[in-house]
Amino acid sequence: MRTVRESALDVLRTRGMTTVFGNPGSTELPFLKHFPDDFRYVLGLQEAVVVGMADGYALASGTTALVNLHTGPGTGNAMGALLNARANRTPMVVTAGQQVRAMLTMEALLSNPQPALLPQPAVKWAYEPPRPADVPPALARAVQLAETPPHGPVFLSLPMDDFDATLTEEEDQAAQATAARRIEHATAPRPETVRSLADRIKRAGSAALVVGDDVDASGAWEAVLRLAERGGLPVWAAPASARVSFPRTHPLYRGELPPAIGPLTRALDGHDLVVVVGAQVFRYYPYVPGPYLPGGTELVLVTRDAEEAAKAPVGNAVVADPGVTAQALADHFPACDPAPVPDRPTEAPQTADGPLPPGTALAAVVAGAPGNTLWVNESPSNVPQFHEAARISAPGSYLFSAGGGLGFGAAAAVGAQLGAPDRPVVAVLGDGSVHYAVQALWTAAAYRVPVTFVVLSNARYAILQWFAQLEHAQGAPGLDIPGLDIPTVAAGYGVRSFRAAGAGELTKLVRDATGGREGPVLIDVPVTTELPSL
User: Fold this and answer.
1) What whole-number distance in Å separates Cα of residue 78 and Cα of residue 67?
2) Contact call for residues 126 and 139 (beta carbons, < 8 A)
3) Are 440 and 417 in contact (CB under 8 A)?
4) Backbone angles phi, psi at 79, to 5 degrees
5) Where are the beta strands (DSSP E) in 290-343?
6) What is the pLDDT of residues 152-171, one digit of tens each?
7) Quick one: pLDDT at residue 351?
8) 80-114 burial by CB neighbour count: b if 16+ within 10 A, else e?
9) Is the predicted pLDDT of residue 345 greater than 60, yes or no?
10) How far from 77 is each of 50, 70, 105, 157, 159, CA to CA, in Å?
């Protein structure tokens, strides 16, 4: 007879989930004891950082991440990062230890009294198996649910005394059979639906595409590119995009839509048909009222998320796989030669000493980074300048948090580098953002993860100052953060750190860091403040 632990580990092996991101507590030790040699444990110093690393790992590797948290307090610490993972559509199984079953009724110390309620609404499913024998099949079910579109985190509460319980041979075999199941998620639209939409695009006076995060996440990049080129369709990026889903150097690319109702509608003015692929309709903030669409404009959403289709305030929807649908639509248009992709800039701009304008600093960073860089961005006030400098034109090359909460960037960059070890990872962070997950620097140093952290330092929460202007909330306290010495903080965690004095030096530091691959490097860059506009 085998133990629950042995059976659970085999379930995870079957699913290829042998990397565990965690911050252990006493209730997790029974799962972790005699940790097998074919598993890898990645330690984070705080639970939100643990989830953020797993988030980046799953997004970069295209696999499902496994997280191990400490009962109720650890789950509570991780909630902000779990909300980000939910918004990012990240496949993730989150386990948390639980007090022994004999003391759950009395709610002894470290009991999680409502384990399925605490992580809501950040997870797709939360569950505590009713018997020890149910732990392995519950793990198998959790993986299936995490990988069902729309992807997202799921949660299991696991009592600590379950793992040494024994299973019958039938129970063990049933769990392994459940783990071995494979489910294909590729819903194709009806041919008549595709034909009707293709005809509408052809009849439109000025049709446009809007592409969202799920184009990149679902592998629909090439199909959408083919549709845009064959149909001659201008392409907008959905507002507040967390991924790049269309080449930013392409002549059909028009930019990213503003994330507010009125300005977004003005941006779409002149288009009588808007086809949205793999995006929410739409991700709005701040509130700037207006009509959802210009007068006379129709909208059709293509999404694999039925809930996303239901909550859209305007337009019709087709719930189907974005890549399958885009390819089927493209087949209704004549083939054409692909557009050439312009070269990336290779020279850093020349500037005088002193704080750099953000656009200049980002151009210098891009000039020093290799062409196959995986970018992680958490400098919210400088997103437009980043995209203007980077002009990303390859799938799977950009990660940003769709959830709006800080703390994703530094942690996700460490996880992304572990998930994509053959690519250089450069994280562009604000000096405010980095402190929401600063403990990730320790993990990067301890595991010699060769992330290049570039911190744009302006000694303020610039994005909040922008919101203060929009919301007529000037004079709010707590928006300036003077006195931060980020290179010293990084050095305290064991990360090599530098402060760039100019654009040329910044380019050289980035080039050396991404080329050396000897461990993490942090580069602090004093910058001026340039607030975005709608």
Assistant:
1) 11
2) no
3) no
4) -60, -40
5) 298-303, 316-319
6) 999 999 999 999 999 999 99
7) 61
8) bbbbbbbbbbbbbbbbbbbbebeebeeeeebbbee
9) no
10) 10, 9, 24, 15, 19
